[in-house]
User: What shape does this take?
Amino acid sequence: MKWCQQCVLPDTRPHLHLDTGGVCNACRAHATKPAIDWAARAARLQEVVELAKRQASAHGYDCLIPVSGGKDSTWQTAQCLDLGLRPLAMTWKTPGRTEIGRRNLEALIALGVDHIDWQISPKVETRFMVKAFERFGSTAIPMHLALFNMPLTLAVRFQIPLVVWGENSAFEYGAVDEAHTGFRLDAEWLRTYGVTHGTTAADWVDEELLAKDLAGYFGPTAEELTAVDVRAIFLGYYLSWDPQETRRVAEAHGFCADARGPRTGYYAFADIDDDFISLHHWMKWYKFGFTRLFDNLSLEIRHGRLTRVQAIEIIRQTGDQTPHEDIDKFCAFAGIARKRFFEIAEQFRNREIWRRRIDGVWTLPEFLIEDWRWS
Ligand SMILES: [Zn+2]
Assistant: This one.
């Protein structure tokens, strides 16, 4: 386990690599941002917008915006409206939607967009989540399949030429190769960065989960996408994406952060719309030896708002952030015992980085902080 010398991420993070100078590709990618010609990118965005308006039918939507109720959703919607687009917003309705997430979503709709809430049957979703947790140690595979496929399905059905995403996580958290920092979200991007462990809905069909049960998770075929000529873009490619800046814009448009502080990680304005997202982030501790906090703090370091030393001190004071409350809620939702949850989680502890001490306590010998209190 090696740690980036500039941020606080280890090389165990998927798609993250350290160069010979000990600096990760996400930090290197961030350093290229000032050199990016943002005016040229904004001009290209204008071209994409004009094309979408020409392609959309006279009585159809210009673009589709996948939204959750998070700050990026409000930012995306405000930007699309400013660009003069007529959007349809859609949401995969998480079974863990929070009250603050619901309120933020309503404020977003009130900006002046039509909206569709798409919810999967809880019977299907719980079965799928537990299966995904057992097979890959990830409760979030159904979520990611829904998030990426539902908008494309609706775009095809409603003949909407453009799907507008927010940040390109592949750029912010790792990949620097041009093919993925560009502007198309295609099948290859989904397979590589879609956090579905390379699976599609078809891979989950069995006696318990029939193909028809999983209808919402199947996206359109490549032929269908081509026939309607649906393009997917990341707004973060055209407009410099910074979580604090998107928060500022979102708050100016009715978004509210969580007054109680961060639920997981460093931000009180992120990961607050879904009770179950923390479980997805928390499994990184078992699999890769870091938590959501490390992701967030690394962004703050890159934007020059924290030093690496300050970030390490925050990690030391915060601890591992085991989301006990959310784990209880998930267990109640999924109908499994808390003990069973931890048994499954334990199976995904990465033995290449974790060592069991003589007293039975698991430790990371190559952890970022030497005097960490392991429990
Ligand atoms: Zn780094």
In short: The longest strand covers residues 87-92.
